[in-house]
Amino acid sequence: ISVTDLKRDHALFSLSTPTYDNRWDYKPNTWHSICTTWDSVTGLVQIWFDGKPSIRKFVHSGAITQTVIVLLGQDQDSHGGRFDINQSFVGMITDVHMWYYTLSPCEIQNYMDKGSFTPGNVLNWKALDFQIIGNVLIENQTDYVYCI
């Protein structure tokens, strides 16, 4: 879940192997939730954006056998490198999880609704081992109150 006021291209999430990379872009000044599923056996992929699923598509299948580098807030123009400051994320990020299995639609909806869900077993937001580079502020998550 994230929010930013950036109007330029930027990367929220970047996953790269030596032969594959991907990133997602979205509208500024609005909290968005993004969930992507990929089944390595079938190659079926689906993106859930703000709780709404996209159509499912087939991409490449097969296990990832190469080294994977996952970055939050910065795009990788090459595997683990060639960073462009103009593609960096400036905003707020919370609740990033990654699982080694494909989540069911019910599990995704529970996560999106902040219901009961199993934390990620590859990346778990509450148990991340991370390195801070640059100006990063870490705060405890609070409930947001919307006033009309």
Write the topology of this structure.
Blueprint: E1 2-4, E2 13-17, E3 20-22, E4 34-38, E5 44-49, E6 52-53, E7 57-58, E8 69-72, E9 91-93, E10 97-98, H1 105-112, E11 123-124
Antiparallel strand pairs: 1-9, 2-3, 2-8, 4-5, 5-6, 5-7, 10-11
InterPro entries: ConA-like_dom_sf, Pentraxin_domain, PTX_dom
Subcellular location: Secreted
Cofactor: Ca(2+)
Question: What features would you describe in this structure?
Answer:
This is Pentraxin family member. Belongs to the pentraxin family. Its main location: secreted. Residues 1-144 form the Pentraxin (PTX) domain. One of its GO terms (molecular function) is metal ion binding. The protein has one domain: Sandwich (Jelly Rolls). The radius of gyration is 16 Å and the shape is globular. A hairpin with a 2-residue loop joins strand 5 and strand 6. Strands 4, 5, 6 and 7 form a 4-stranded antiparallel β-sheet that branches. The longest helix has 8 residues, at 105-112. The protein contains 1 helix and 11 strands; from the N terminus they run ββββββββββαβ. With 148 residues, it is mainly β. It has one helix at residues 105-112, and strands at 2-4, 13-17, 20-22, 34-38, 44-49, 52-53, 57-58, 69-72, 91-93, 97-98, 123-124. Mean pLDDT is 77; it is low at 144-148. The two termini are 22 Å apart.
